[in-house]
Structures are given as structure tokens and as C-alpha cells.
UniProtKB/TrEMBL annotation:
Zn(2+) binds at C81, C84, C121, C124. GO terms for biological process: negative regulation of DNA-templated transcription; regulation of secondary metabolite biosynthetic process. One of its GO terms (molecular function) is zinc ion binding. Keywords: DNA-binding, Iron, Metal-binding, Repressor, Transcription, Transcription regulation, Zinc. This is Fur family transcriptional regulator. Belongs to the Fur family. Binds 1 Mn(2+) or Fe(2+) ion per subunit. Binds 1 zinc ion per subunit. The keyword Glycoprotein does not apply. Signal peptide: none annotated.
Length: 130
């Protein structure tokens, strides 16, 4: 079944690109609602899921925190500051080899992963907020 390209879906995609900071679903909803207050939260959440399933956004699952969405689809990882919550891109190297090794060792197919590193951002480290 072919999925429809709706105005709401485009609004959600545009909001994620505009925010460009790995927003949560709540942040995307707030951004959409600023200019289109009649769009419901459920519509934003549904479209974030659909856009992720279609490969137009990356859905980053965050155990113990709000999931995030990324417009950058090139292979990369992420890092979060354990003090202030700053969330940023981190370079990826060897990702394909890691997926292949796990697939080979487990017998799974279509293996992929998301890695989120944790640490103190430079600003928090400089401020001695450890």
C-alpha cells in the first residue's frame, strides 16, 4: 500500500530539518504548533513514526529518556552530556564491520545499531560541573 504524502507529514519533516538539533517529539510538536496550531500532537507523533519507517528520518531510541529524531541519514553516532543533556553527532567508523560481525556471530540478518555515547560536554567539563 502506497503511503500518502500529506501536508502534515511535510510540516513535521520541515520542523525536524529546521530544528536540526535531534529534537524530541514534543519539541517537533511545539515547532509545528507555532505556525499551525490546529495540527494535533497525535498527528505529529504519527507522522514522525511514518517518516522514520519510510527512511526519511532517523529515530533514535533513548532508554530512560525521550526518543529523538535526526534529519541526517548518513551513518553516524551520537553523544549526550550527562550533566546538561546536550545531544550531538559523533563520528562513526567501523559501523558496517560491527553490523557484519554481529550478524555473522548471531545468525541474524538486517543487523543495524544506534550508539549513543555519554560524557561531559566541553562546557560542563570547563565549568567543573562533574
Amino acid at each position: 500500500m502506497e503511503k500518502r504524502n500529506t501536508i502534515q507529514k511535510q510540516l513535521v519533516l520541515d520542523a525536524v530539518f529546521r530544528l536540526a538539533n535531534h529534537p524530541t517529539a514534543e519539541e517537533v510538536y511545539a515547532e509545528v504548533a507555532r505556525s499551525h496550531p490546529t495540527v494535533s500532537k497525535a498527528t505529529v507523533y504519527r507522522n514522525l513514526g511514518s517518516l522514520s519507517e519510510d527512511g526519511l528520518l532517523r529515530h533514535i531510541k533513548m532508554p530512560g529518556g525521550a526518543d529523538r529524531f535526526d534529519h541526517m541519514l548518513l551513518e553516524h553516532h551520537h553523544i549526550i552530556c550527562t550533566r546538561c543533556g546536550c545531544f550531538a553527532d559523533a563520528p562513526a567508523s567501523g559501523s558496517a564491520a560491527l553490523d557484519e560481525a554481529v550478524a555473522r556471530q548471531t545468525g541474524y540478518s538486517g543487523v543495524s545499531h544506534d550508539i549513543v555515547f555519554r560524557g561531559l560536554c566541553p562546557e560542563c567539563a570547563k565549568a567543573g560541573k562533574a
